[in-house]
Structures are given as structure tokens and as C-alpha cells.
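Need the bound structure for protoporphyrin IX containing FE, inputs here:
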Amino acid sequence: MSNLVHVRDGGDRLTVTELTSMACLLLVAGHETTVNLIGTGVWHLIEQPEQLAALRRDPALIPAAVEEMLRLSSPAHVATLRFTTAPVRVGGVEIPAGEAVMVSLLAANRDATRFPDPHRLDTGRPRGGHLAFGHGIHHCLGAPLARLEAGIALRGLLARFGTIEADAAAGPPRRRDSTMIHGWEALPVRLAP
Ligand code: HEM
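Answer from helper R.:
Posting the output first, comments after.
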């Protein structure tokens, strides 16, 4: 952010509009998403301690765990707005041409006809096929970075803390009330070496 501001202040390489839209993009698309992927991912491991133990035994499973966390709790609830160019039939409903469509990636990723036992995190599940990063021409530009960040964070957490559990004394976790970003307002955890 500082570098971008310096580029703006030091010359005419970025307009104010370009600078502010880049700042929003980095904060929302680049930061809120990965923060919440890590938060919900850790929560799933707390809820399914056998998966946490499996990752500790075999850290080579971490990339598979990141894909499962993306599938199960993608931080981006809906894809970029789409518009129908022709009538489309989805789930028995006809959407006329020229309509705006909000696609729920979270619902698609828990489709039981595609992912058996969809509400479980399962690092042994065949990888791929989820829509956490969208699809087609607008597929997320930051997907490789997001995968990298989540893997590094998980590896670091597991290496540093032998205990990762919910902190019941601090109260239940509170989900964020947002249609756009799926994540936490508060996720109290107890960590010990
Ligand atoms: C867990 C992390 C992330 C998730 C789940 C995620 C998810 C998404 C989704 C669902 C879209 C819309 C795709 C579509 O409608 O087909 C998108 C677009 C985009 N994302 Fe991400 N994102 C993440 C991280 C990032 C990061 C780290 C960056 C950049 C630093 C980034 C930059 C972008 C950009 C620039 C677009 C727009 C692409 C376009 O419209 O062509 N995202 N992302």
C-alpha cells in the first residue's frame, strides 16, 4: 500500500481512482479472503480433531487440506455478478435472458451429488472440482498466492502449537454477518506450545 501511495505521490503513474480501487482490491480480494480462509480452516480442524492429527502426522497433506478448506468454507460466498445472454434453466427455474445472476459458490461446493458427505472436511477426498475461486474468464487472479499463504500459515501453526482448541471460556465463535465474505467476527482459540 505504501509503495502504491509513493508511486501516486511521486509522479503521475497512478490516478487517484486507480490508487483507491487498487487499495480496495488488495484489502477485500487479497486480504479479507485469505484471513477468513485461515480462520475457517482452523475452525474445521478444531471441530474434526482426527483431521488435525492427520496433518500433524503427515504435513504433506497440507495442500489437500487447503483445497478442502476452500471447498467447505470458501471465504467468497458469491462469484462476480453474471448476466444471462439467453434463457437458462437451473434447478427447475427458468432465468430469462438479460437477468443478473448471483452464483452461490458455497452452495455449489457442498453439492452432495458432486461431493459425497459434503459437510465434512476430508483430506483424503479427490482434489479439484470446487468453485472457491470462481470459474472461467474471471477465475481468481490471486488463487496461487491464496493457496500459498494458507499452506504457510497452517504449517507454521502446526509447527509452533501442540495444542489448538476452542477457548470455551471466551465464549462461542461469532460468524460474520455478511453475504459477501464468509468468516468470523470472533474465533476464540487456545494455543499452547
Ligand atoms: C482464499 C482466498 C481467495 C478466494 C476464495 C478468492 C475468490 C475469488 C472469487 C470467487 C473471485 C470471482 C471469480 C468468478 O466470479 O469467477 C475472485 C476474483 C478475483 N480475485 Fe480472488 N480470492 C482469494 C484471494 C485473492 C487474492 C490473494 C488476490 C490478490 C492479491 C485476489 C484477487 C482477485 C482478483 C483481482 C479477482 C478478479 C478477477 C477477474 O474479475 O478477472 N483474490 N476471487
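Comments: The mean pLDDT is 93. The chain is about 45% helix and 10% strand.
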